[in-house]
Every structure is written in structure tokens, then in C-alpha cells.
Amino acid sequence: MTAPKTLSDQRRALLARRIRLFVAATISYNIIEAIVAISAGTVADSTALIGFGLDSIIEVASAAAVAWQFAGRDPEARPDEQHVAARQQGHEHPVEEAVLADDLGVDAIALGEHHRPEYSISSPETVLAGIATRTSRIKLGSGVTVLSSDDPVRVFQRFSTVDALSNGRAEVILGRGSFTESFPLFGYDLADYDVLFEEKLQLFTRLLDEKPVTWEGTTRAALENADVYPKTESGRLKTWVGVGGSPQSVVRTAYYGLPLMLAIIGGAPDRFAPYLDLYRRAAEQFETTAYPVGMHSPGFIADTDEEAKEIFYAPYKVMRDRIGALRGWPPLKREEFESEILHGSMYVGSPETVARRIAAAIDKLGVGRFDLIYSAGPLPVSARLRAVELYGAKVIPMVRDILAEKEN
Fold first, then answer.
1. CB under 8 Å, gap of 24 or more: what pairs does 330-337 form?
2. Model pLDDT for residues 235-257, shown as the tens digit of each residue
3. Cβ of 304: how many Cβ atoms within 10 Å?
4. 48 and 108 belong to one structural domain
């Protein structure tokens, strides 16, 4: 069977323009015809002429409907379909970016879980499974998985499946999430915000042993000697806890003997130094392991400082103001944006600028991992790919060189 021929974008636009002109001419003719026929019919007291004029009005309405159909950019894609197409691209682009990052030697990629229109990914592990089949070395994680509104058993099963597909490269960052849409969406009461995470994290840490589990709590059905599959090849799924600034969360992470990932998205990074100290002291008290701490912060890289700021600012402001309106924040000003780049936790600029600032943050805090949140709002695809390219090819090697020089 021969596949149907598809029109090029230029040919489609030309045909749509011709159709709109034809429809406009049809509407104009029928309006004139209706006015003449109804006027003449009224003067002559002729129902036939009046009826002919009314028929012309109906034809005008039909032509107007056709004109509306072809008023959009693509006559075959209505707004809801355009939205679906954009969401589909939102899943495809991270895959291509991950493939590029893998080729460049970037250590890890983490995809966040969101249930809002500003974000395209609600199921990170599904996209990570696709990435797993096209990459060979990069670690594949979430950033974060909202454990409070999910089931620990299913989370473990999904990520252990990604681990199998990627030959042991999966990891999960568990968190309570900075947004709350998932709670009502999946039938959870925000009044149980703390107990949901506490109990589910407790169960998840038991599942990490990959042995039969007996557990009972108030937030899900009890388990009696339950064996959960699939198992991981290594025998333990790499699991972090993402924390945004709560001392209680830091202590909880140390109690369960899990690595800590700090979300540092604003202000000077060194203000988080007490949290690292707390994590280490708590781990010592609980006699658990204090792993190297990770941090993630927003940023963007282009060939020059000015280019990076100009590309990143407008999309970032749109998203920041939209979210800020829900949280009572004032609209972002350009001066605030520039100040955060110079003194805060936004790593925007040329490879040299970003590398120096990342190295300084790592050195001040003593963290073992830095994750750059390089997407914010509708950034151009080419700019995102270029940012990944510069990060892997230039920024990471420069950061390593700077830190090696400091050690010497």
C-alpha cells in the first residue's frame, strides 16, 4: 500500500491563504446578494426574494465557519491538538538532550514529576525508560518523584524496571514536591502532608533491601511478607531524598541513611552550609552513613553571558511569575534576575562564567554532585541543545580542572 503524500509547510500555508481569500470573496458576494434580495423583496412584497436573501445569510454563516476553521496557523490542528503536539515534543526533547549528554560524558540526567500545564512530564520514569534504550552510560533519575502522593511499591517497581532497561543506571530522588497538585489528583488530603511522606519513606527504605517486607501504617494497605519484583541487578536501587530547606527533612534523611540532595534555587548557596553540617552530625548520631551531598540549582549556558541571559530571562520570567502569582510573590524584575546571577543560585552565562560559579559553590559547600536545572519555560529547542552541549563539552571539564587546582 502506498503511503499518502504529505504537504510541506509552505504548500500548506499557500493553500490555506488561497482558501481564506476565496472564502472572503464568497462572504462579500453573499452579503451584497442578501442585502439586495431582502431590500427588493420588501419593496415588492415578494416572499421569494426575501427567502432568497435569507438563504444568502445562511451561506454567509457557513462561509464564516470555514473562515474560522482556517484562521489558525494550521487548519488541521485545533488548539487542543496543538497543545497535545506541544506536550508530545516536551517528551521528545528531553530524550534527544539526554542522548547528547550521554555522548558528551555528562554523569546524570534527572527529570522532575509535575502535574501542571507549565511542565510536560508527569511520569519521569516512563521518559527515562525511553532514554535508557538510547543511551549507554549516563545515570537516569527523577528530580523529584513525589512519594507522598504515590505508592512506594509501585515507585520501586517502576524504577527497578528502568534500572533493568539501563543495565543498572537508574536512581530515584524522593521528595514531598514543591507543588501540591498531585495530592487531590490522586485522592490524598493535604492535611496528611507530613505523615504521608514519613510513612511512605519508611516503607520505601524497607523495599530497598529487596527482601520480603512486612509493614503496617495508616496511609496504605499493610504488607505481610511481601516480595516485590523486579529486583535490581546490584541488589539496591540508588535512592536520594530531595530537600528544599527543612531541617526536619535533613534529619529524616540522615535517620534513614540515604544521600541528601539539596534544592538550592535562590539566594547565596553558602547559606545552606548549616544543612550539610546538620546532615553529617545527625548521621553520626544515628550511626548511619553520611553520603556526599548533592545540590541542584537553575541555570542556562550560551556562548556569551549576554546571549545566555537574553535567551533565558523571558521564558524564566513567564514561569516564575505564573507560579509566583499562586504563592503571593511579586513579579520578577530584571534587577532581581541579574542579582541572582551575580550573587545567588542562578548559574546563567558563558561556559567560563558558569564553570567558575559552579566550582565556587561546590568548594564552599563541599558537595559531591551538582545538577543544573537548565530548562525553564518555552526555551527554543536549539538553545536547549546548545546549553547541553556547552555544559558537557566545556563547563564540566572546566569545573573539574578548577577544583583539581584548588586541591593542589
1. 337/309, 337/313
2. 999 999 999 989 999 999 999 99
3. 13
4. no
